[in-house]
TrEMBL record:
Pfam families associated with the record: MarR
Name this protein carries in UniProt: HTH marR-type domain-containing protein
Residue stretches making up the HTH marR-type domain: 1-134
InterPro entries, per database record: HTH_MarR-typ, WH-like_DNA-bd_sf, WH_DNA-bd_sf
Gene3D superfamilies from the UniProt entry: Winged helix-like DNA-binding domain superfamily/Winged helix DNA-binding domain
Entry keyword annotation includes Iron-sulfur: no
UniProt keyword terms in alphabetical order: DNA-binding, Transcription, Transcription regulation
Amino acid sequence: MDDSLHYLIMANQMLVQKALLYKLKDTGLTIGQPKILDYLSRHNGSNQKEIAKACFLEAGSLTTILNKMEEKGLIRRQILNGNRRSFHIFMTEEGKKKQQLVSEAFSEIERKAVEGISKEEMEGFLSVYQKIYANLLDEAGSSSINKKTDQ
């Protein structure tokens, strides 16, 4: 195993994603859908730009995922304030049921991930990890994903 920071971040993300998809394999959810449901659970009614930015998705990729979610009855799109160019996305009752399963899966994965780690170690880790996130967010400020979703 490589001990470099970039490798550990990438490897942990892949392990979380694989564990999540395994736990949700019987739900019919596909890659990208759990994080959108998770985001909507806290920001129901967000527009597509907000969702794309928060979930680090390109606008085109988000549209494809949302189309599939709408076909499955997980979300509905609604025009607010008469702006036909901006849809707001709301979870349906079916979407809320699936989101509950997503939330439970995330909780199980997080519990497993922090086994044997003290509260103090976790607080220190999260503090450092948030600083890394902020540093990388600053660095990504000029990346194509932020440019495309901010327009």
